[in-house]
Amino acid sequence: MILSGILVLICLLFIVIKGFNYGIDFTGGTEVQIKFNPETKVAIHDLREMLQKTTISAVEVQAVGDIRNNEFLIRGGDKITNFESLKTKLNATLKQNYSQLSEFQFKSFTDAYVQFSAPVDETNLKQIFESVGGNDLVLKSINKVDESTHAYRISFLSAEERIKSALKESYGDGAFEIVKAETVGPKVGQELKYKGLYAVILTCFFILLYVAFRFSFKFAPGAIVALIHDVVIAAGVFSIFGLDFTLQIVAALLMVLGYSINDTVVIYDRVRENLEKYKTKTLPEVINLSVNQTLTRTILTNFTVLLVTVTLIFMGGPVLRDFAITLTIGIGVGTYSTVFIASPFTILLEKILKPKTAQAQVK
Prior knowledge:
63% of the residues lie in helices and 16% in strands.
């Protein structure tokens, strides 16, 4: 338990101080995975340099798998950290130039709406959006909503469109294909971040209720401490090594919670049976016996699952790699915590909460 406490403390320090390298699921942005034709020779530094010269902001390029596969992952574009200040600046500039401004709002990164109470110069309006938007908001078109109103829909090039356009210009139209494209806004990203955290907390809470109902309240804290131990260490590895923390990782952590509690319940179930069977034995003796009786099952079951997850790390490709890493770490520490955390914590809690009862039994 001292070893576990040290590991959890180290992981918590990294999570609090260093934090996570959040993927676009949580920060907002665009991720495009492209694959070039075998005959098209592409150097990653040339590709990165070319994209950085375009209007794509915060661009990152990395090879997918072997560099000879000609497959790359491009991130950036819509990841505008100062989006709110950009909107404020646009609003202030429009008010300064047009006293007849009645409404201005953004529908998304690529779509805005502006309305005036009187006709305006469309050329001047276009220049304002081009000058204030800069590289973050590349103007695509300005269209009237209808002829009877002075309302306009402002469209901007998405990061995906800008990436495609830059690639076509440099390598030709048929030189590549889009394998995957994903775009997430910053507001949605923040919501997903909090919902992911709530999902983990709620899962732990309902597992606590389940174990308390299925067995008794004296067993539930040990199960929850073991689950928190598993999640913190698995998440801590991502913070320590700066791996991308995405919704896939949250899903993997929830899977680890379910898998770990399943193993713990198997041991607790045997403890309950043995408490009825061996009424003269103490709780530590019964738990020790139960752990030993289920140990072969625990080792064999978790070992076979680890064979699959380790294989996925090396052969599952970049899309599944981080997911498989989370499962491998989680199941590994989950097997350890089931035996060395959950049950021993139940004994410790019994000793702390019922010292007088234990003394009375000795007398």
